[in-house]
Amino acid sequence: MKKALFIILILSKLFIGNVLAHTDHYKNIQSIEMEIFKDQKYIGYTNFKFKKEGKYFEVKSITDFKVKLMGINIFSIFSESLEKYEDDQLTYFKSETKQNDKRKFVELFFDTSKNEFNINGSSFKGFADKNNIVGNWWNHKLLQSESQISPLSGSIKPQTIEFIKRETIELYGEKIEVEKFKLKSKNPNTPKDKKLDFDIWYDKKRALIVKIAYKRLGDWEYRLKKVN
Question: b/e map of 117-137 (b: 16 or more CB within 10 Å)?
């Protein structure tokens, strides 16, 4: 019994350490480039740039895609964001998004006096638990979190993560051993257009999410193309 308890404690410490040190996994990475496909057709990209100096870590991102029907734009997003961390704690996030002709936004501060996030977003304004994570695809901690903050509107989205299987996939001519997960909304009554329902492929060796797939008026995929 004591031996089993000791093993559990050791594994818990290793797991917690891995969670807290997630930004260290990107200290030697300058950028991540992902391509976006809808119904197997390339429609745009989402790119992330990283900067780490001591205990400070910064991520800048740009997402740009357009869905066309008979040559006419029917859906588009252009979004820019900035994330700042100190000792692995998210301290600031800001994004500006144009979705078709609609503006969405988020500005988030970590309030040290309350030990919570103070969020001003187009869909949510208020405080949120500091363990929430911004739902950007660069961050594999997304697969360890109980809820995420929408990077477009600031809304809080409780989620469940289910491990599906280990498999080998091919991306851009390269075979990759991955772990597949299912990420879903925790609340079954979440409106369909706001519901989380993603298949996510994770490369444990590199600590990178390499592919995301979901269905929404067609089949969507985000594919990791390049790491610098």
Answer: bebebbebeeebeeebbbbbb
Cα–Cα distance, 224 to 47 (Å, whole number) = 10
**Cα(193)–Cα(55) distance, integer angstroms:** 38
pLDDT band at 73 (very low <50, low <70, confident <90, very high): confident
Would you say the pTM of this structure is higher than 0.85? yes
Separation between Cα atoms, residue 180 and residue 201, nearest integer Å? 5
Q: Give the three-class secondary structure for 8.
A: helix
Name the residue with higher pLDDT: 200 or 74.
Answer: 200
Is the Cβ–Cβ distance between 199 and 182 less than 8 Å?
A: yes
Residue spans of the domains in the chain: they are: 2-227
| Backbone φ and ψ of 44, nearest 5° | 165, -160
Alpha helices in 21-145 (DSSP H): none
